[in-house]
Amino acid sequence: MESCNCIEPQLPPDELLSKYQYISDFFIALAYFSIPLELIYFVKKSAVFPYRWVLVQFGAFIVLCGATHLINLWTFTIHSRNVAIVMTTAKILTAVVSCATALMLVHIIPDLLSVKTRELFLKNKAAELDREMGLIRTQEETGRHVRMLTHEIRSTLDRHTILKTTLVELGRTLSLEECALWMPTRTGLELQLAYTLRQQNPVGYTVPIHLPVINQVFSSNRAVKISPNSPVARLRPLAGKYPGEVVAVRVPLLHLSNFQINDWPELSTKRYALMVLMLPSDSARQWHTYELELVEVVADQVAVALSHAAILEESMRARDLLMEQNVALDLARREAETAIRARNDFLAVMNHEMRTPMHAIIALSSLLQETELTPEQRLMVETILKSSNLLATLINDVLDLSRLEDGSLQLDLGSFNLAAVFREVINLIRPIASVKKLLVTLHLAPDLPEYAIGDENRLMQTLLNVVGNAVKFSKEGSISITAFVAKAESLRDPRAPDFFPVPSDNHFYLRVQVKDTGSGINPQDYPKLFTKFAQSQSLATKNSGGSGLGLAICKRFVHLMDGHIWLESEGLGKGCTAIFMVKLGIAECCTESKLPAATKAGMNHARTDFPGLKVIVMDDNGVSRMVTKGLLVHLGCDVTGVSSGDECLRLISQDHHVLFIDVCMHDGYEVARRVHEKLTKRHERPLTVALTANSDKATKDQCRRVGMNGVVLKPVSIDKMRSVLSDLLEHRILL
Amino acid sequence: MDVIQMQRTWVEYTKSLYREGFLDSQFAQLQLLQDESNPDFVVEVVSLFFEDSERLLNELTKVIDQQQGVDFKKVDAHVHQLKGSSSSIGAQRVKNACVAFRSFCDEQNIEGSLRCLHQVKQEYFLVKNKLENLFSLERKIVAAGGSVPTEELNFL
User: Any CB–CB contact under 8 A between B106 and chain A?
Assistant: First the structure.
C-alpha cells in the first residue's frame, strides 16, 4: 500500500501491541549489541580458540541483526525514505552475513563435534596413563625392594646372617606378620623350623616332609598360596579373628655337585627349604601379583647366596687343610734333608777316614806276618788280621748298602773273564772249607761264554757271599757250585713271579746254583733272609761274623744286574741251595785279558802297550801333571802336558786320541765342553777323561753332562791307567 | 859299606817309610814308572814337589798371617794344590794333614787353620828329610856300582 509523505500515518488502534513490539525490538537490539561485546571479550581472552573468524562472522551477523532491529524502531512512525534505504541496506547485509554464517556453521559443526570426541578420548587416555604410571611405580618399588633385599643378602657370606636378613627384610618390605623358614633335616624326611621373624628362638618344631601342601609348594617354582591352617603356617597363636593370607615358596638348596654342564639344576634331585610368609591378620590385604613375584625372586636369590656361602666354607676348609698339610710336609722334607745331609756327611767321613786306618792296620798286620815271629806272636797277628778284615768288610758292607739304598750305586761295567771269577772265589774259600773238611766242587757249563760284560767286582762279591754263607752254615759235607747259561724256559721261576727276564742278542742270563749240605733253612725264617741286619736265632749263636747284611747286599747287587736271587731248602738239617741269575753282556771280542796284578815283571814290555797314542794331559798342579805324564809315557803314549784351559784348546786337534782333564780346575768342565764344540765329529774328536779326587755321583753326572767319555779317580796306578786306556779305546766309554 | 848292605838298608828304610805312613802306594807306582829310559823320574817328580810345596807353604803363611782378615778362599785353593801334589807322589801324611786343613778352611776357623798349617809344615819337612835321605842312599848305591832294588818292594 502506498503511503504518502504528507499524510501522517494514523496510529493504529492496537498501539499497545506496537508499543510492546517497540520495546521488544529495543531489547533485542540491546542484546544483539551486547553479545558481540562478550564475543570480543571472549576472543580476546581465548587465544587458543581456533575459530576466530567464525566468531567475527557471528559477531558481524549479530551486530547487523541488532542494527536491523534498531532501525526497525524508526519504522514504527512515519519515516523518511532514507531511513527506509538504511533499513533495507541493513537488512540486505544482515541477510548476506547470516547466510554466510549459516553456511560456515554447516562446515564447522562436524569439527566442533570431533573436538568433543577428541576431548573425551584424551581424557580416557589420561586416565589409562595414570593407571599405568601407578603400575610402573609399584614395579619400581618392588624392584627397589628386591635390590635392597638382594644387597642385604649378598653382603654377607655367613649362612645364618643371610637367612635372618632375608626374613627381616621381607618382613619389612611386605609388612608381614610372620615369616618363617623351614630347613630339611639331615635325614631329609622332615622339615625343621629354622628361622622365624618374630619369635627369637624357634622351638625346633618339625613337620614331616611328605605332606600334600608341602609337595604342592615344592613341585612348583612359584609362590603358592596355602591355607593358614596348614601345619607349616600354624606358628603362633592367632592374633585376630581372621588370619591373613599365607604364601609359601620353595628355596632350592644348591650343592656344588648339582651344577652339571649339560644338566641344569631343575633336572637333578635336590633338597628344598620352605619359606612361609603371612600377611597381618584382620586386614583386608591380599597378596598382589607383584608381591608374589618379589617373594619368588627373593627365594632364588637366597638359594644362590646360600650356595655361595657353602662353597666359600668348603674352600676355606680345604685351604686350611692344605696349609696344614703343607706345613707338615715342609717340616718332614726339612727333617729328611737334614737326615740325608747328616748321613752323607757321615758317609763322607767314613769313606775316607775309616778306610785309611783300616787298610793301614791290615797292610801292616800282613807285613808283620811275613817277618819272623814266635808261634804265640803269629797267632796274635793272625787274630788281629782276621778281626781287622772283618771290620773292613763290615765298613765296606755298610757303606755299600747305604749307597745301594740311595740308588747312587752304579755298576762298574767292564769286560772280564767269567771263569776266572769263579776260580778266584774258590781259591778264597778253599782254606776255610778245607779247615772244616768240606769238599768244594765247581762245574761250569761248556756253553758259558769266556768273557762277559758286567761288574766283575760286585759279581765276585755276590758269589763270595753266597758261597761263604754255604760254607759258614755247613758243618760237614760238600759245597757244589754250578754255573750255566739260563735257557728261556728255565728263566721263569715260580718263586719269583715278578721276574720277567727278557733274553736278547747282546745279553745272556748267568744262572749260578750253590748247593750245600748244611743246616738248611727253617721255612719260618724265609722272609727274613734277605732283610738287613736280621739273622735267625739259631745262626746267631754261632760265630757268625757277619752283620746280617750279606744277603741283603747280594740281593741288591743282583737286582742292579737285572736279576733275581733266592734260596731253596727242604727244611732244617736238609741243606740249602742258593740260586741267582744275573744279566751279563756278551763280550764282542775276546781280546780283553785280565792282567795279572803284579806287573813288575812286565815292566820293560810296558812301553808297547799303547804305542803312538797321542794324549794331552791338562792339570794345573805341576807335580800331578808330571806324574800323570810319566805314567802315560811309561805306557808308550806320546804325551803333551798343559797347565791351562787356553793352552789346551790351542793345542787340541783331531790327531789327539785322548784328553785327560783335571776337573778340579776351575775351567775343567768348560774346556771339555769347548773341545766338543770345536771338534764336533765323533770319530775325529779325542776321547775326554776326567781326573778327579772325588768319585761322587755329582761329579760323574757333571762329567756326563758335558759329554766326557770317562772318569778316573786320582791318584792313578799304572794298572788302572792301562785298563782305563784299553777300555776307552775299545768301548769309547767308561762311565 | 858294601852294595848289598846298602841295598838292604835301602829296602828296610823304604819299608819303614811305608810302615810309618810317610809314603803310600802311590809312591810305589812312581818307582815303577822309573826305568832305563827314564832313570831319574822319581827324583825329578819329588824335586818338583819340594819346590811347589815350599812355594805353597810360603804363600799360605803369608795369607794366614794377614791381620785384616784371612782370605779363606785363597787358603783353600793353595791347600787344594798341596793336597793334589802330595797325593800324586804318595806323601800320605802331608796329604792327610791337608785334608784336615781343608775342613778347618770350610769352617773359616783361623785357630784351627793355623794349627793345621804348622802340622802340614811339620809333616812336609819330615817327609822331605826322609826322601832326601832315601835319595842320597840311592845315589850311594849307584855310585858303588849297584842298582836300586825296587823289585823287593812286593808287599803292596
Answer: no
Q: Does the ipTM exceed 0.95?
A: no
Most confident of A149-158, A584-593, B93-102, B103-112: B93-102
Query: Which residue of chain A is at minimal alpha-carbon distance from B19?
Result: A364
pLDDT 10s digits, B131-150: 999 999 888 888 888 887 77
* Closest by Cβ to A624, choosing from B25, B38, B84: B84
- Percentage of residues in chain B with pLDDT exceeding 90? 21
From chain A residues 341-380, the ones with a CB under 8 A of any chain B CB are: 352, 356, 360, 363-364, 366-367, 370
Annotated binding-site residues of A for Cu cation read: 65, 69
- Rounded to a whole number, what is the distance in Å from the CA of B109 to chain A's nearest CA? 19
- Assess B99–A contact: CB distance below 8 Å, yes or no: yes
**DSSP class of B91:** B
Q: Residue-wise over A505-537: b if at least 16 C-beta within 10 A, else e?
A: eebbbbbbbbbbbbbbbeeebeeebbebeebbe
Chain centroid, CA A659 distance in Å: 50
Tell me the one-letter amino acid at A34. S
Mean pLDDT of chain A: 79
- Evaluate if residue A493 carries a pLDDT over 60: no
Q: In what order do the strands lie in the sheet with A246-253?
A: A206-208, A190-196, A178-184, A271-278, A246-253, A224-226
Q: Report the DSSP beta bridge partners of residue A225.
A: A247
H or E, element range at A441: strand A438-444
**What is the rounded distance in angstroms from the CA atom of residue A57 to the CA atom of residue A98?**
9
CA gap A648, A666 in Å, rounded: 14
Tell me how far apart the terminal alpha carbons of chain A are, to the nearest angstrom: 165
Mean per-residue pLDDT, A332-343: 90
Chain B residues with beta carbon closer than 8 angstroms to that of A367: 15, 19, 155
How long a stretch of residues is chain B?
156
CA A485 to CA A512: how far, in whole Å? Answer: 9
Q: Which of A320, A239, A322, A319 is nearest to A280 (CA)?
A: A239
pLDDT in tens, A379-394: 888 888 878 877 887 7
Helix (H, G, I), strand (E, B) or coil at A415: strand
